[in-house]
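USER:
Class, as today's exercise, take the chain set out below, and explain how the chain folds.
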Amino acid sequence: MKTPLTRRSFIENSALAGAAVAASPYVSAQAGGAGKQVKVALIGCGGRGNGALGNFLEACKILGIEGKVVATADAFKDKAQGAGRKHGVPDEKCFGGYDSYRKVMETDCEYIVTAAPPGFRPVHFEAAVKAGKHVFMEKPVAVDPVGARKVIEAGEEAKKKGLGVVAGTQRRHQGGYIANKAKIEAGAIGEIRGGVVQWNGRIPWIKRRQNGWSDKEYITRNWLNFTELSGDHIVEQHVHNIDVALWFIGRPPVSALGFGGRARRVTGNQFDFFSVDLDFGDDVRIHSQCRQLSGAYGRVGEMFTGATGAAFGGGKIDGKDVEIPEIKLEAGNPYVQEHVELLKSVRKGEPLNEARNVAEATMVAIMGRMSAYTGQLIRWSDVMQNEKSDFYKYACTPTALDFEEGDIELPAEVPPVPGKG
């Protein structure tokens, strides 16, 4: 590739390549109750939130269900109103403010699409589960170990309540990826021994500070460029590729050791690039590498080397011919298919629950970032089991609840320095 790829263009190109292959293990389930109305609310009314809501409504049409948007919420009320007007939501159900998600939980929505900045997602997800709502939540689902574990805990509670949870790691709902995962399980390349996962592109967008903006408004509007709200691009964007590695290998890594730096970023406090060695144990290592630099070489994808062959994540496999079950996708677009599978699973009475999958992928990305920021080796046990570890306790500040409670102090717009604590 001679030009950097966007997240959407990469997925669309991959979807075309895999359209003839088929794929969801839930495809045999019949969507019962055709014609029944389902009520959905949106939290986080930016571009991805509006896109995800549109994908949900398209999935409803595919399944013969009427989807009705009953509420919207955003830190900025005008954005909630803008999204609401598109779907005929009464103004009194378009909520603004950092606590607006709480008002959504009091409505009669059955499903919630949550796409506020990642720093808010653990709190929003936990509230949705407590309110008994089925959830589609965008990736990543946290920015620190405390938040990632909160998502796992809430996901377990969702299981007890019989709630469906699907995440925006849509490669798990894309034909080429699902087929390759099945082929690898059937022995096409032997046991995975290593590989490379990459996301190299440019900074998607920045928002310069405007006169009159408070610290709170500035960091919220420019959230993509602040670690406290986005997790840095290794978490916010590269989590897709890391998720594929965990999915294909079948376990999280033992440790992460990486480095990174900043050369040209002009706002926020993040790095421009990361290079992380993920040690999965048993001599299996994955190189996780990502970069956001305009004008640099662009490559997005995954490659795995097996004992007897090799495979690209959703593309070509060089290995043994194996047979896998033929399964069809209802939607050619994986962004829609993930919602199809959420709706089908709930209506069948066997709700999907992807909370742990996406939280673990998010946690691994956080490990890589923490290692690069500090210069230290970060172990899975440090962030998941060892309660005495400083890494286990680490939470970005300001926290989501700090935004609800009043003014916040803007983090310094300088990158971390490894080896300085």
Summary: The longest strand covers residues 192-201. The radius of gyration is 21 Å. The domain at 188-325+360-405 is CATH 3.30.360.10 (Dihydrodipicolinate Reductase; domain 2). The longest helix spans residues 355-374.
